[in-house]
Design a protein that fits this description.
Helices cover about 35% and strands about 15% of the residues. The chain contains five helices and three strands. It has a three-stranded mixed beta sheet with strand order 2-1-3. Strand 1 (about 85-90), helix 4 and strand 2 (about 125-130) form a beta-alpha-beta unit. Helix 2 (about 40-50) packs antiparallel against helix 3. The longest helix has 21 residues, at about 95-115.
């Protein structure tokens, strides 16, 4: 070999070369760019936020029960500093396409603003809305429409 692996290689010993490792000082799997993966508990909190973040009807005003759920996301973002967050707003198919698209964008932005106000660096987050274009369930009944009205939080390694 040409020289010592410690210099050119793998500082945290996780099998991912530093040049390809987004977290060269913290071990993590290659499938996650060499960064630690979220614990199951933290993944569950992110999933919970998708169903629990609620707004005033037809508005982008967060309801108070959304705050503790969003605070969990703040906590996760602080504990996983090498992750970025994509916030996506979605609506059901009730009402006008154009206003639904605008509403979904405003709701994603409301979550972005809340998280930023709690100390998550805005440069680590993006937000957008997709209106009714990406339903998660049927729009033919109340239960399905309720599942389609959501904000999704997707964490990924930079």
């Amino acid at each position: 070999g040409d020289g010592d692996m410690g210099i050119s290689g793998d500082s945290d010993g996780d099998g991912v070369f530093d040049a390809l490792d987004s977290c060269p000082d913290i071990p993590g799997p290659a499938s996650n760019r060499g960064c630690p993966e979220l614990t199951q508990e933290d993944m569950d909190k992110v999933e919970l936020a998708i169903s629990m973040v609620q707004f005033e009807t037809a508005k982008s005003v967060l309801l108070p029960q959304s705050f503790p759920v969003l605070d969990n996301i703040v906590d996760i973002m602080k504990r996983y500093p090498y992750y970025s967050l994509k916030i996506s707003g979605h609506t059901d198919n009730v009402g006008d396409d154009t206003s639904n698209l605008a509403l979904s964008k405003e709701r994603a932005k409301a979550c972005f603003d809340y998280l930023a106000s709690k100390g998550v660096f805005p440069g680590r987050m993006t937000h957008d809305g997709y209106g009714e274009a990406k339903p998660r369930a049927t729009n033919n009944n109340d239960e399905g429409r309720a599942l389609n009205r959501r904000v999704e939080f997707e964490l990924s390694v930079n």
